[in-house]
Amino acid sequence: MFSTHGSPDEAFRAHQAMGQGVEFDTIRLLMSRWGDLAVDIGDDAAVLPRLISGQRVVSTDACVEDVHFRRAWLTPFEVGHRAAAAALSDLAAMGARAECVLVAFIVPPSWEGDLPQVADGIGSQVRAAGARIVGGNLSRGRIFAITLTVIGVAERVVSRAGAAVGDLVLVTGTLGGPGAALAAWENGNAPEAWARSRFAAPSPRLAAGAALAAAGATAMLDISDGIAADARHLGAASGVWLALDERRLPVGPGVEPASALVSGEEYELLVTMPPAAFAAVAERWEAEQGVSLTVVGAVESAGAAEETAAVRGHDHFGTDQ
Amino acid sequence: MFSTHGSPDEAFRAHQAMGQGVEFDTIRLLMSRWGDLAVDIGDDAAVLPRLISGQRVVSTDACVEDVHFRRAWLTPFEVGHRAAAAALSDLAAMGARAECVLVAFIVPPSWEGDLPQVADGIGSQVRAAGARIVGGNLSRGRIFAITLTVIGVAERVVSRAGAAVGDLVLVTGTLGGPGAALAAWENGNAPEAWARSRFAAPSPRLAAGAALAAAGATAMLDISDGIAADARHLGAASGVWLALDERRLPVGPGVEPASALVSGEEYELLVTMPPAAFAAVAERWEAEQGVSLTVVGAVESAGAAEETAAVRGHDHFGTDQ
Which of A119, A154, A189 is the last residue of a domain? Predict the structure, then answer.
């Protein structure tokens, strides 16, 4: 039943031949956009290859019109790109490579013509991640929504719970873009190109996440609620207290540190790691990864869950701690 | 990182401690309803145990208000029960046992108060299936929708593609209930209790599917579009021609065979199997499985994809073939 193709793991199955019907026609349209990205479509469920090493991780993530984006802000391609990047980012935060994706669409009539471009946007991120599309669901509905389930394989799983006193707190990339883009749109303005791109076309940090896992990251998550809130989430899970230094935040052009602290949906990684482990990767990091890795704080003490992160230099009246 | 608990497979991880926030409060509410059914909640992704044997299969399925049901028809518990049963049915159709489920909710304000009962309905089916809830997503939105991703483990995968000439065509259970319930509601009437229950509270045939796989089923799917259409789907995937005998359909009380043929969302299994394999399981089937297994036709010849099933006795003018 299975062919092999040089991968250390087994391969996915071939598609099932499908009969006639309107839903099948739409599935065939999606498959024509996805080409070789789509495998094992048409059965009741997809069969995952047996793994040679590592552990599977799984996450599901929804992108809903008028909740996560407004149609006027994004092209249909960007809607798909962003939904897929956001979902894949959860795999990056576990230190996993992306293996496969399932895509459940809710499609109102007004979106039907845009579905091929949305599919292309999803496909661009699945392809960049080296993953395959192994299933999905199509439903009508009064709002447009994409719920993506992503499955990855981690050689070393990094949870949110391993941060230890003395670890450095690090962040990938440059913060504040999505927050700046949202603020512009909500004020009726066009965002700056950099900020717009950070909202519309984020990059899940899959290679960086796997490298950080291999390098000894003790805890990791992706920044979805803003680095200040996500530092508290990581602190709560680890039972430690994180101190962030606002002055060290890697902010984008024209972004105030205070805005970067609360800019969500960044899809950058927040990581804790012993200083020696960071020193071992820091020198060659940017050349190898193509994304910055910045020390923004330290794990200072064990702490109660309700007070697990604080920001220094966040006092605009000059009583800088 | 993992504990073991007597299962031949490894165990799921424990939950991550979560901090404060409205979304976390709703997650905690759901977790309080699900109790020990929910595991490994709170990280970016759940970690699946390593398997000792078998293969993982995965499927995703959406249940959208005003598309798959109307709120007036079902209790909130039934909305959850039905959504979970429908998703789990795809695992049954592969011959798989259910391992874990991820639940993505889109919740308008008008549904927030009903979420605990919806969660209970989902939980009832996850518990009956012996599975766990390992993640999900919460989103606001203008319609209520549940997208469930289900992961199972099959010792022997049964696809749609293996039916062979000479196989019997079998179906589990009794058909026509969901169609009769929908017809009643759409005519402004209350459905009969049996028909309503078949729509509102279906049972995924997980034990039957695994038993049929072990017994040598050659192809299998679950009846979502009506047995006539699904026989064509199975025929298309297998490249064979299925002949169904309308007079042999196991119909519910008061259901005409012609209605049973097109009654969808049955979540019964349509199976092909060599006669000898059927004979080996038929005698003890109903006592062991608690659900009927009825011969409804045969695989008659190799066939083109566009004409892969036909129904005998479906002529209401008496020229019964």
Answer: A154
Two structure tokens written together for A30: 């999606």
Check residue B165 and report its DSSP letter.
T
A51 contact residues in B (CB cutoff 8 A)? 50
Residue B9 within a domain: no
Q: Using a CB-CB distance cutoff of 8 angstroms, which residues of chain B are in contact with residue A19?
A: 232-233, 235-236, 305-306, 308
What is the CB neighbour count within 10 angstroms for residue B186? 9
Q: Which tens digit of pLDDT belongs to each residue from B4-38?
A: 334 445 799 999 998 777 778 899 999 999 999 99
Q: Are residues B60 and B181 in the same domain?
A: no
- Domain with A273, as residue range(s), is 168-312
Q: Average pLDDT in the A161-180 region?
A: 97
Rg (CA), chain B: 21
If pLDDT is split at 50, 70 and 90, which confidence band does B319 have?
Answer: very low
Q: For residues B177 and B49, state if they share a domain.
A: no
- Closest residue on chain B to A13 (Cα): B159
| Shared domain check, B192 and B91 | no
Q: What is the CATH number of the domain that holds A230?
A: 3.90.650.10
Does residue B13 lie within any of the structural domains? no
How many folded domains does chain B comprise?
2
Residue of A nearest to B238 (CA): A17
Are B132 and B179 part of one and the same domain? Answer: no
Element (H, E) at A88: helix A76-92
Interface probe, candidates A55, A58, A133, A138, chain B, greatest B C-beta count within 10 A: A58
Identify the domain boundary among A132, A154, A176.
A154
A55 and B56 within 8 Å at the Cβ level: the answer is no
Q: How many residues does chain B have?
A: 321
The mean pLDDT value for A235-249 works out to: 94
pTM: 0.93
Contacts of B1 in chain A (CB under 8 A): 157
Q: Does residue B303 have a pLDDT over 80?
A: no
Q: Where are the alpha helices (DSSP H) in A136-274?
A: 177-186, 193-200, 206-215, 227-238, 257-261
Q: B212 and B244: one domain?
A: yes
> What's the CATH number where A131 sits?
3.30.1330.10
Two tokens, residue A111: 């979106």
Are residue B214 and residue B306 in the same domain, yes or no?
yes
Please give, rounded to a whole number of angstroms, the shortest distance from the CA of B66 to a CA of chain A: 8
Residues A192, A195, A198, A200: is their CA dihedral positive or negative? negative
| Residue A7 located in a structural domain | no
Among B20, B23, B41, B43, most A C-beta atoms within 10 A, so best to mutate, is B43
In a domain, B110, yes or no: yes
Is there a contact between B57 and A46 if contact means CB atoms under 8 Å apart?
A: yes
For residues A2 and B149, which has the higher predicted lDDT (pLDDT)? B149
Best mutation target, A50, A60, A67, A155, to test chain B (most B CBs within 10 A): A60
pLDDT digits (tens, 9 = 90+) for B196-236: 999 999 999 999 999 999 999 999 999 999 999 999 999 99
Rounded to two decimals, the ipTM of the complex is 0.92
- What are the DSSP E strand ranges found in chain A? 46-47, 55-64, 97-107, 132-140, 145-154, 168-172, 219-222, 240-245, 269-273, 293-302, 309-312
Q: Are residues B111 and B145 in the same domain?
A: yes
B contacts of A15 (beta carbons < 8 Å): none
Together in a domain, B177 and B287: yes
Average pLDDT score over residue span A124-136? 98
Q: In this structure, what DSSP letter does residue B152 have?
A: E
